[in-house]
Amino acid sequence: MSQQHTAPPGAHRPSPELPEPPEQPRLADITRSAGAPAELPRVLDYDAQPAALPKPRKRRVAVLFIALGAGLVVVTLLSAALGQMQIPVTEVIGSLCRRAGLSCGAAPSHPLADAALWEVRFPRVVLGVFVGAALAAAGAIMQGVFGNPLADPGIVGVSSGAAMGASLMIVTGLAAGSSFALPIGAFVTGTLTAMLIYSMARSRGRTQVVTLILVGVAVNAFCGAALALMTFAADMNQREQIVFWQMGSLAGALWDAVATVLPLLVVGLVLAFGIAGKLDLLSLGDDAARHLGVNIERLRIYAIAIVAVLTAAAVAFAGIIGFVGLVVPHLIRMLVGPGHKVLVPASALGGALLLVLADTFARTAVPYAELPLGMITALIGGPFFFILIKRSRTKNGGWL
Amino acid sequence: MSALQRLGRSLTAPARPALGEIVVRAVDVSIALGGTEIVRGVSCEVRAGEVLAIIGPNGAGKSTLLGALAGDLSYGGSIELEGREVKDYPNRELALRRAVLRQTSTIAFPFDVVDVVKMGRAPWQSITSVAEDDRVIAQEMLRSDTFRFADRNFTSLSGGERARVSLARALAQRTTLLLLDEPTAALDINYQEQVLAVARQSARRGNAVIVVLHDLGAAAAYADQVLLLADGAMQAAGTPGEVMTAERLSEVYRHPVRVLPEHDGSLLIVPVRFADEPPGDPTQQPPETTAESETSP
């Protein structure tokens, strides 16, 4: 019997940094008269010998950021070089240098190379970077707000809500009048949809995944119908624009579009980074986050507005490109953990990288034809989503 | 905009009350949830240096009362924390003064244990230095014996380990008022005693601790005051010896309870156990036997 009371050797073996534990309290020491601190039984207390905390994964984070940054530079240069007109990377660098007033890189070998780069390729690549960053950052924030790795602007319907607003602008002809009409329309309906989803999917301070996905199904169905109606009502030119939109594409990107998206993206990313620390607390659940001083409702509404801004920035000119917001944050989380202060900027970089890569593939895979970008991201993202569902099922024993 | 306001409002660490000063004063508190009155007419005072245990049968309103004391639920009457009504505190000011440990501890994403405990320092951001925060975190992790698995994933821990990590997080908040909702429920005997001893030690160093407990013996041993709730009403309040009498506990819990004073002055509180059934033919079991076995704990 007494053998059961002695712990097996090594069961409570302290780690190297751990100071020797003080003596356990003896039964006789525990008396009701223990009022003064001096007479207290000894409990686990290491006040006198503070130990070093395990080091945060700073190296890993630094390596990730360097890898993502370098990868993004390489991929953007390659993306600018590849296409119907092959331009060597050295010439791409040379063209960039000439604009910057420097003399480096190679001179263009084709008379139209410079024009092709600056009027077609560069705006497209830059828009790809922006859209990818916006989508992935929006996905990371959304997952943090809902406390669920399956949340994504595309799946829950924010993207199609924003697409509806943008299509409305196209059909009413407002988009032809002002380059800001599209993003504003996308932003307004995107925000409204996000708020609707939020209010529908939450009950008693929790978001059930099933509810979230079901609300997403309903929202996507409704927005799909609205888009179909607008396609029906539109004239030929507008119709083409709308269809183009739903498939998602960066084709025909202009510097105007880049200039419109940039401020939305910058504002969205800066605000997103600002709330990143609080999103960590939110993962403890509503009550625990409130106990740590977070104003939950305000944070949620603020975060959803940020998601709407970022989604609008992405959707306004590129249309619906799904799964980037789902895949990228998940991969980053697997690499460096779920802390949002790293997750949000790393996801932005990763999203940019993935989208430029996907777009390069979309326009070079088939000669003289262009695959829709949304189709490619869905081809990668769909199976990934299955794996994610399967994993969360086996891990949590169901929908959790 | 709100970020600017937060920067402008420079927060400072709240002043610590002296030992014996009243930290929480609840007067005639009533709480209604969904139209039903769960708790009514509860009054209590907890001073710095004291542990108050809330005991009572299931559904007595213990956790609900704790929720109101934490500022989570709206309440009638008055709950003053350090002289100010709990519901009038801004969230962060409240987070600097009271920490809460709930029964369930879940997390949405796989954070490391050390990061979870670190979250307990969130209210102190820009009040204390990072070095100071790290010192507090290390201390509380050692105190709750979670330091050994500091870099493990919270989602990979057992229920008892999670409970201790959550305790470390609550303690890392370093608040004057500590609210614990059944902190010993998932723990083995060693940690049950350790956790309650840590809570009382925190009280002795100048804090107030309110703890909901099911273990009557532990409540008698570790609490200075006991509040006995039944059906949302206060049945008795006072020192463990005054409140926890055999007659009163037997009546409130609707089960005979024996209270035996030990030679060292502590109280041993044990329910009277059900008598064993003689083995019988399972096919001819009288219906009242099944009813009785259902009520046995």
What does this entry look like structurally?
The complex is a heterodimer of chains A (400) and B (297). With 400 residues, chain A is mainly alpha-helical. Chain A has 15 helices and two strands. Chain A has a single domain, classed as ABC transporter involved in vitamin B12 uptake, BtuC. Chain A has a two-stranded antiparallel ribbon. In chain A, strand 1 (202-203) and strand 2 (206-207) form a beta hairpin. With 297 residues, chain B is α/β, with parallel strands linked by helices. Chain B has eleven helices and twelve strands. In chain B, the strands form three sheets. A six-stranded mixed β-sheet of chain B has the order 6-7-8-3-9-10, sandwiched between helices. In chain B, strands 2-1-4-5 form a four-stranded antiparallel β-sheet, with helices on one face. In chain B, strands 11-12 form a two-stranded antiparallel sheet. Chain B is globular. Chains A and B meet through helix 10 and helix 11 of A and helix 3, strand 6, helix 4, helix 5 and helix 7 of B.
Output the helix-strand order of chain A.
HHHHHHHEEHHHHHHHH
Beta-strand residue fraction of chain B: 15-25%
**Would you identify the CATH architecture of chain A?**
Orthogonal Bundle
Main sheet: strands, sense, barrel of chain A: 2 strands, antiparallel
How much helix, percentage-wise, in residues of chain B? 25-40%
Helical percentage of chain A = 55-70%
Instruction: Tell me the strand order in the biggest sheet of chain B.
Output: 6-7-8-3-9-10
Derived structural class of chain B: alpha/beta
Q: How large is the radius of gyration of chain B?
A: 21 Å
What is the strand tally of chain B?
12
Work out the oligomeric state of the chains in this entry. heterodimer
Average pLDDT figure of chain B: 88
**Whole-number total of structural domains of chain A:** 1
The name of the CATH topology of chain A is: ABC transporter involved in vitamin B12 uptake, BtuC
CATH class designation of chain A = Mainly Alpha
Number of helices in the DSSP assignment of chain A: 15
As a whole number of angstroms, the C-alpha radius of gyration of chain A is 27 Å
Low-confidence segments of chain A, given as residue ranges, are: 1-16, 24-41
Number of helices of chain B: 11
> What gap, in angstroms, lies between the N and C termini of chain A?
42 Å
